[in-house]
């Protein structure tokens, strides 16, 4: 009998191709119809394997969740970029391949990303999600996030509302 192990670890430059693939499929799945098509394609194309490899070599704090030998998802974490929020850490991105969504892997990756931020000395964390991305909003609410801010971001000339969720340490 074989069992597949689920692990979360810091990403390595060799993971860049898998992370780029996850970014591509997860963004198409989550944002098609929300972000204008041409803009979405540009955003996906510029975050290919070379971009991720450079980011990892420069010290970006990226974690990958593996299921057996497969990289199923990633989280990119660091210092909160919204200085007006009372949280020191931020999960910049948390994405799973679509076939791994809804199975508990996101919860595991989120909790491990939260632990990574805490171990780096960040007190609390924030996450931003597009207001029209109902699955993401539901996930962050289920994880105990409280709505703490609203803003807009422009994609291809279209302003989209985004919401910030926060968690204390």
From TrEMBL:
CDD domains named among the record's database cross-references: NAT_SF (cd04301)
Top-rank lineage group of the source organism: Bacteria
Molecular-function annotations in GO: acyltransferase activity, transferring groups other than amino-acyl groups
GO cellular component: ribosome
Keyword Repeat: no
Alphabetical UniProt keywords: Acyltransferase, Ribonucleoprotein, Ribosomal protein, Transferase
InterPro entries associated with the record: Acyl_CoA_acyltransferase, Bact_Acetyltransf, GNAT_dom
Residue ranges of domain N-acetyltransferase in the record: 6-166
Keyword Secreted among UniProt keywords: no
Descriptive protein name: Ribosomal protein S18 acetylase RimI
């Amino acid at each position: 009998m074989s069992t597949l192990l689920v692990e979360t670890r810091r990403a390595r430059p060799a993971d860049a191709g898998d992370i780029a693939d996850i970014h591509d499929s997860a963004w198409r799945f989550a944002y098609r119809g929300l972000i204008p098509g041409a803009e979405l394609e540009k955003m996906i194309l510029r975050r290919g394997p070379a971009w991720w490899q450079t980011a990892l070599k420069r010290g970006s704090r990226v974690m990958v969740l593996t299921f057996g030998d497969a990289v199923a998802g990633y989280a990119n974490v660091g210092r909160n970029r919204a200085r007006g929020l009372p949280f020191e850490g931020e999960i910049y991105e948390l994405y799973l391949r679509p076939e791994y969504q809804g199975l508990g892997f996101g919860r595991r990756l989120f909790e491990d990303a939260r632990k990574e931020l805490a171990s780096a000395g960040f007190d609390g964390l924030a996450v931003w999600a597009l207001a029209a991305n109902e699955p993401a909003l539901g996930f962050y609410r289920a994880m105990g996030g409280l709505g703490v801010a609203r803003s807009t971001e422009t994609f291809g000339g279209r302003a989209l509302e985004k919401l910030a969720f926060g968690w204390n340490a």
